[in-house]
From TrEMBL:
The lineage of its organism: Bacteria, Pseudomonadati, Pseudomonadota, Betaproteobacteria, Burkholderiales. Signal peptide: none annotated. GO terms for biological process: 3-phenylpropionate catabolic process. It comes from Noviherbaspirillum denitrificans. This is 2,3-dihydroxyphenylpropionate/2,3-dihydroxicinnamic acid 1,2-dioxygenase. The active site is at H115, H179. Catalyzes the non-heme iron(II)-dependent oxidative cleavage of 2,3-dihydroxyphenylpropionic acid and 2,3-dihydroxicinnamic acid into 2-hydroxy-6-ketononadienedioate and 2-hydroxy-6-ketononatrienedioate, respectively. Homotetramer. Belongs to the LigB/MhpB extradiol dioxygenase family.
Length: 312
């Protein structure tokens, strides 16, 4: 058993509302390095902890955790369409193991996943099907959220399961860091928006285009006085990265959900996927981690970070 980890931000605005060429090149370079490392590792299984942004999961039945035995990309923004290559029996074994570990997780035999899952897979492997992958969606965008300690416990259960496999496993966390894109909140939403958040699956092409245009327009003003959304918080991001890299995972149990939303932005909770990924790695033994990259990028509405780790 060998386990490697990569956690990185995603942003659907990459390629649609780019920062200056120097920054784009910097990120391209770090992603090519990460992709080369994945290629060299040649994982026999990828476990990706990812959020959903009201593309696959809605308030008609909003789970905190979901594991999928089959999933298809909704191909939002510029992301790839098509099914993921999920080993069904192994995903079922993992589900049973997680449930036996006292963690309630929903099971989907037909999940729709969005850029939150697929962008990172594509960036690190070049496709959605290059390696067998088990997606685990962690609610990070649709409040209320369960406490961070529950996310850590989920990650640890997954880590114990993969530690028992005789396989090279790559664990991914995708999302964050500090950011607040214009994703609506159900509290106080007008009826039409609430209807979408409750049951907005398979929107019309026009509705999807409108949503994407709104995000791009926000990217153009994000971080300026013209934008009312919570700005990026590099200090918060760097402290969070250090917490994980230095192996102080127990600190996340004290994370205050409201406080994080206020100081770093509502979608910062996508870091729950990083917490789960690091918890999985930690359950397999001591690890070494490094911070590969960090930069706050307003054009992408992203405190953009990349971190790698592996068991010692
Ligand atoms: O769900 C959307 O439409 C947009 C999501 C988004 C926007 C900007 C940065 C991100 O990390 C996102 O997930
Ligand atoms: Fe996101």
């Amino acid at each position: 058993m060998t386990i490697k980890l990569k956690c990185l931000s995603h942003t659907p605005l990459r390629g649609l509302n780019d920062p200056g060429a120097d920054v784009v090149r910097e990120v391209d370079d770090v992603l090519s390095r990460m992709r080369a490392e994945v290629e060299a590792f040649d994982p026999e299984l990828i476990v990706v902890f990812a959020p959903d942004h009201y593309n696959g999961l809605f308030y008609d039945l909003m789970p905190q955790f979901v594991i999928a035995t089959a999933a298809e990309s909704v191909a939002d923004y510029n992301t790839l369409p098509g099914p993921l290559s999920i080993p069904k029996e192994l995903a079922m074994d993992m589900t049973r193991f997680i449930l036996d570990s006292d963690i309630d997780i929903a099971l989907s035999h037909r999940l729709q996943v969005d850029h939150g899952c697929t962008q990172t897979l594509e960036e690190l492997t070049g496709s959605l099907t290059r390696y067998p992958v088990i997606p685990i969606i962690i609610n990070s965008v649709a409040p209320p959220f369960g406490p961070y300690r529950r996310v850590r416990k989920l990650g640890e259960a997954v880590g114990r399961f993969i530690a028992g496999l005789d396989k090279r496993v790559l664990v991914l966390g995708t999302g964050g860091l500090s950011h607040e894109p214009p994703v609506p909140l159900i509290a106080d939403a007008p009826q039409e928006v609430a209807n979408f958040l409750i049951a907005g699956r398979n929107p019309t092409p026009e509705a999807r285009a409108q949503r994407q245009a709104r995000t791009i327009a926000t990217g153009k003003v994000f971080g300026t006085p013209d934008c009312p959304l919570t700005p990026l918080n590099p200090e918060w991001d760097r402290a969070f990265i250090n917490t994980l890299v230095e192996g102080r995972l127990d600190k996340v149990d004290q994370f205050d959900i409201q406080e994080i939303s206020k100081t770093a932005g509502r979608s910062t909770h996508e870091i729950r996927t990083w917490v789960a990924a690091f918890a999985a790695l930690s359950a397999a033994g001591p690890y070494a981690a490094r911070n590969d990259y960090y930069r706050p990028i307003n054009e992408w509405i992203a405190g953009y970070g990349v971190v790698s780790a592996e068991t010692l």
